[in-house]
Amino acid sequence: MKKLLFITLLAGLWLPSMAAAEIIGSVDTTFKMLGANDQIVIEAFDDPKVDGVSCHLSRAKKGGISGSIGLAEDRSDASIACRQVGPIHFKEPFKDGEMVFTKKTSLLFKTMQVVRFFDRKRNTLIYLVYSDRIIDGSPKNAISTVPVMPWQAK
Fold first, then answer.
1. Which of 2, 20, 91, 98 is the most exposed place for a label (fewest CB within 10 A)?
2. Distances from the Cα of 13 to the Cαs of 4, 9, 19, in angstroms?
3. Spans of all domains in the chain
4. With a threshold of 0.90, does the pTM exceed it?
5. Average pLDDT in the 28-51 region?
6. Residue 88: pLDDT above 90?
7. Would you say 130 and 143 are in contact if contact means Cβ atoms under 8 Å apart?
8. Full strand arrangement of the beta sheet holding 124-133
């Protein structure tokens, strides 16, 4: 078990650079007497390998004392909307299922991830958000698509 924990922590240091999120806003969903309230947080990020595509993500964030000090596990609920915000340009080749964005949603073992696929037949980028844990993930997920005109995919 100690080896698994060490490998997990070490792997986190070697993750490739991904998009950084900017917090747009939040709303409280549950009042907590002590600590922060439970919230829905809205964040935005730009695809690091595709110019002209931005995504907005809403996710649940646990409050209370444990949430305030980073010990609570956030729920797996998330929603994503990605849109073309400028000319689309592929900066470099990418693989289907490549991670675009990740956010830790518990102290150690749970993360929310956004991965990208390209449906070549339909010229469409697909962004999938989901949560996973080392032992057991969640089937909750959401997708957003961005059509790419053939003359844009350079």
1. 2
2. 15, 7, 16
3. 2-147
4. no
5. 86
6. yes
7. no
8. 98-104, 110-119, 124-133, 141-147
